[in-house]
Amino acid sequence: MVKNSVLEVKKLCKEIDGKKIINDLSFSVEKGQVFGFLGPNGSGKTTTIRMMTGMIKPTSGSVKIMGHDVQTNFYDAMKNMGAIVEHPALFDYLSGWKNLIQSVRLTGEKHDESYLKWCVETVELSDRIHDKVKSYSLGMKQRLAIAQSLISSPKILVLDEPTNGMDPSGIKDMRSLIKKLSVEYGITIFISSHLLSEIENLCDHVLIINKGTEVVNGSVRSLLEQNQPEFNFSIDPAKINQAVLLLTEKNIKCSQSEDQIVVHTTRSDIPHLVNYLYEHQVFVYSITKSDNSLEDYFISVTREVG
Ligand SMILES: Nc1ncnc2c1ncn2[C@@H]1O[C@H](COP(=O)(O)OP(=O)(O)O)[C@@H](O)[C@H]1O
Ligand SMILES: [Mg+2]
Asked: Which member of 102, 113, 179, 208 lies 3.0 to 4.6 Å from 215 by CB, making a disulfide possible if both were Cys?
């Protein structure tokens, strides 16, 4: 293998009852990446993750973790992966600590107490670790599940919508924990979400799917560059057509919106554009910046398909 791929998904397909749920999905996650897996509800994120973790079989295609095929070499593949799919699997009537002891028994790993304590400290649950899990908040349960995953020292941690249903402070804690796992411990992270805004600052790469099909796969930086901000130029309604023509001639992306024109440009180019229009007797009376976030882009691309 030339690249440093921790996870490699090739031509993955899943049909259920004759319906295509996942359609020819290919991507790879490189060592050290925080990889965002985005799509609206029902787009196929959990189904993909279930195939990645060997919980369900693909109709066709393959998943490799650290070069080991999940289908043909399940044990070697999975020993490198920690995953929390949908809801964390925990015993509510046991304490957080006893849940961890239970996991150690189940995985057959041999660990001393100090290692388990390190896992608990890492997820910042030391204060409450001897309380019963049923008294935990959603965020604490997720953090305990992450501690559980850390027991087997995974190379990659797969988190399926870990912030779903959390309040803003829970979301913030989860984000900083994920950042810590990535930056301080070098764990590769694969995180799914239906809200780009929740993970946009966390990820360096995003794959967006809709109806089981790839829409976009690229670095967050390139997406931000492609998504230039929009400015609304307010001008004389009689001059709108002329203004659109003038700007289009200069290869500036723009469109008409009621009595304004929407111009895709950078802040530093605005004085030049205003001056250029002025020289052609098209006067700009005011400019507002529209709040065009990556989130809007995400919503628009996931609307376009199908
Ligand atoms: N076991 C199943 N039987 C039938 N349909 C399913 C099954 N699992 C998932 N689906 C369908 O597949 C689609 C994708 O679901 P899912 O992977 O859970 O999406 P997401 O996690 O992105 O919200 C949905 O339309 C869902 O109804
Ligand atoms: Mg899901």
From this structure: 208
